[in-house]
Specification:
Blueprint (H helix, E strand, L loop, with lengths): L1 H9 L8 E8 L9 E8 L4 E6 L7 H6 L8 E2 L1 H12 L5 E4 L2 H12 L3 H4 L5 E2 H7 L4 H4 L7 H5 L11 H18 L2
Parallel strand pairs: 1-5, 3-4, 5-6
Antiparallel strand pairs: 1-2, 2-3
């Protein structure tokens, strides 16, 4: 914690509060053959957006077992998804913050293409790298509180469904807010 406080003295607070916490679920880890299945977004103030997308292609066995059971909502088209994200993002071009954006950003681009610059900053924020810089193991977030990180911060992670895009985005927001609150 001492090292974290020293780092936070240098960067007293995040660059911007205009962020949207984001998670997605997709049909395959191979972006060439996979499709986005669901998107969850949460603003700093707690406003939420969640939708599931129409999908008729193959789904990897792991996704079928761990993600598909949560996909029980109405399915919408890519065009409708774009409209909802545009309305949710508003006119101030927020930053997207995801746990590890390697896949989330690639799949998001499949929906919004080059229009991303009109909705969100072109660069998404990889919060795992932020945690690494703060001296925290970025894998602890994604491993169901293996090292008690959530418990130490007072987060009841069991209230969130793992591998559900909205719940993952909500948990990410709560974790982010606790990190900066506890390290002040």
């Amino acid at each position: 914690m001492k090292k974290n406080k020293e780092i936070l003295k240098i960067c007293a607070k995040p660059f911007s509060d205009n962020v949207i916490f984001y998670d997605s679920e997709f049909s395959s880890l191979d972006p060439e053959k996979g499709d986005l299945l669901s998107v969850g977004m949460v603003k700093m103030n707690g406003d939420e957006l969640y939708f599931e997308l129409e999908h008729e292609g193959e789904v990897d066995p792991w996704v079928e077992k761990n993600v598909a059971p949560y996909l029980t909502g109405e399915k919408i088209s890519i065009e409708e998804a774009f409209k909802r994200m545009k309305k949710f993002a508003g006119s101030k071009t927020p930053f997207l913050v995801s746990y590890v954006d390697n896949y989330d950003a690639v799949y998001l681009k499949k929906i919004i293409g080059q229009a991303k610059r009109n909705l969100f900053h072109w660069m998404s924020i990889d919060i795992a790298s932020m945690f690494f810089a703060l001296g925290r193991n970025p894998e602890d977030f994604g491993d169901a509180d293996k090292n008690g990180e959530f418990k130490k911060l007072g987060i009841d992670w069991k209230q969130y469904r793992e591998h559900h895009a909205l719940d993952d985005a909500k948990l990410l927001r709560e974790y982010y807010l606790k990190i900066f609150k506890n390290d002040d």
